[in-house]
């Protein structure tokens, strides 16, 4: 079986990195240990409930640890009688078996629940009754509720993925997904901090831990969730790098590098931190620090630096890193890897924000204009004029 083949490899990883050993309640059943380490390897189809069964029951899932985890994710559906509820539970189990991240599973239940509630209000009895018109009406409902285009598109993508799963199971007609609804998103630019404001911020941070956190975020481009999940063993000061075993969004590992000032700040923090803690950063008396605590800390320093009115967030430190790297001449392909973007088009947004060559061209041309260096009349090229007249595009 898969878990038998994987056991030696997983045991080896535990031995090499004891800090990553999962902890379990109860008697520490080896099968449960494997569940905690890698949910994708140890539940063959034969060992689990029949996913395609129309009356899927979570209690049919063989392993108690797996059932307990699924019950946690599916808790928002408890006590509700919704059309397609069983289909959604099977879909969540399917994503769980593919080792999807916790936030992905929670988001799946949250967004799909909204769609099932909509289906209930429209009188549908099951997912087999879904039509393309239902999808259009759902989009309109979310827009009428004042949801942003990004939120509406995110929920629609989830619904499409759910329906695609049901199409493969033979529950939903394939015609439902023909001519998918396209939602145009605003192309907003990333928000980076002004260099002067970065200086003001760093000048007011005296706390050893907090200075290390801010500098690491600013010099590596890590997401705050990635930094809060970093273990001490992931930090290699001598090589000036931090390993991220799994990126927060796409679960793809990568390596980021540490500047000299960030390394000095980290060294100062490591000298005074509790060596018994496995997390690199932690809150007082706790194993780890949460996002809310980090955000409150950051906002306190914004106030102290006198820049709290500018709308900066912790994520702006990531944007600032990317902008500064491009301004310093880093290639987009390198920046893409450091930021952990799956598509270079996402990274390209920073080029629109920080293209120094375009800026230099503009001011060079404007300097000529302001000196009065342009003389004569503006004339349309004769060949271009003839072409436009022929195409009836010239008034």
**Would you count the extended β strands for me?**
3
Walk across the major sheet and give the strand order. Answer: 1-2-3
The CATH topology name of the largest domain reads: hpI Integrase, Chain A
The count of helical stretches stands at: 17
CATH architecture of the largest domain: Orthogonal Bundle
Integer-rounded radius of gyration: 27 Å
Report the span from N to C terminus: 76 Å
According to CATH, the homologous superfamily of the largest domain is Intergrase catalytic core
**Into which percentage range does the β-strand content fall?**
under 5%
Question: How many domain regions?
Answer: 2
Shape by Cα distribution: flat
User: What is the succession of H and E elements?
Assistant: HHHHHHHHHHEEEHHHHHHH
Largest sheet: 3 strands, antiparallel
CATH class of the largest domain: Mainly Alpha
Mean pLDDT, rounded to whole units?
Answer: 80
Low-pLDDT ranges: 1-7, 13-52
